[in-house]
Each structure stands twice: as C-alpha cells, then as structure tokens.
Amino acid sequence: MAEEEESGTGNRNVPLPYAPLPPGASGPLDPPPLGAPPPGFGPQLVIAEGVLTKAAGAADRVFDAFHGPARSVDEPTGKAARELAGRESAAALRTSLKNWQNQSKAAETWLTRIAESLRASSGTYTSTEKGVEQQFSVLRTYG
After folding, report:
1. Could you tell me if residue 81 is inside a domain?
2. What is the pTM of this model?
3. Assuming Cys at both sites, which of 75, 81, 99, 143 could form a disulfide with 93, CB separation 3.0 to 4.6 Å?
4. Total number of domains in the chain
5. What range defines the domain where residue 61 resides?
6. For the segment 62-94, what is each residue's pLDDT rounded down to a tens digit?
7. Is there a domain that residue 15 lies in?
8. How distant, in Å, are the alpha carbons of 17, 50, 73, 124 from that of 131?
9. Distance CA 120, CA 47 (A)
C-alpha cells in the first residue's frame, strides 16, 4: 500500500464515484414513466351511501341482543353464592361472576366503540367526498 501511495495511483479496491447515465440511457434509478401509476395504488375505495351507518346499526343490535342475556346471570349466580355461604363453591361462584361481568363489560364496550367508530367514519367519509367534489366542481367550471 505504501508503494501505491508513493506512486500516486491510490487504492484500486475503492469503487468508482457515481456518475449519472448519459441522456437517453436507462438505469435502475430512473423514475417510472409518466403514464404508469405509482406502485401500491390500486382501485379507489368507494363506499356506498349509508353502508357505514347500517353497519353501526348492526353493531347496536348485537349489543342489545347481548346485554340482556349477559346480565341475566348476575342475580341467580349471586343467589347461589349466598346459599353456599362459607363453602369454597361460594367463593368460586363469586369469582366466576366477577370474571364474567368484566368480560361482558369489555365486549359491550367493544361493540359500542365499533358502532361509534362506524358512525364517525360515515360522517367523515361523506363530508370528505362532498368537499373534494366541491373543490373539483370549481375546476370544471373554468375548464
């Protein structure tokens, strides 16, 4: 290496600096042609009017169908635990009831949030559609 430095030729293992391709040549870093869509953009998502609101209503109906039966176990299980007072079965019943109540409340919260999210998404989607349509309608009048 000392000989190369002394002769001024440098290290032959260093890669050559990047040089752009001459005009008309193509390489791996060239941008895509203008007519080609960018990768990853497929067909646009189009949601029919009222679909998200209808889905929110379905989530509400599932909540209503679940809530009553889920709460129906509270009284009989509590009564059974009181009847078995002082036994291990009573503690097991109270523990299982508490776990059931926690799980059913979590499911109800989940269903409520889904319905709220669908309603909010419906409003946002509809207002965005109308806003974009209004912006482009101005362009159509001048075009």
Report:
1. yes
2. 0.56
3. 81
4. 1
5. 55-117
6. 999 999 999 999 999 999 999 999 999 999 999
7. no
8. 50, 18, 50, 10
9. 14
Q: Is residue 12 part of a domain?
A: no
Q: Taking residues 18-30, what's their average pLDDT?
A: 69
Place of tokens 């990853």: 40
122 and 58 Cβ atoms separated by less than 8 Å: no
Angle among Cα 14, 20, 25 to the nearest 5 degrees reads: 125
Is the predicted pLDDT of residue 5 greater than 60, yes or no?
no
Which tokens sit at 38? Answer: 């960018």
Q: What is the pLDDT of residue 111?
A: 95
Q: Which two tokens stand for residue 141?
A: 């009048």
Angle formed by the axes of helices 88-142 and 51-71, nearest 10°? 170
Tokens linked to 67: 């809530």
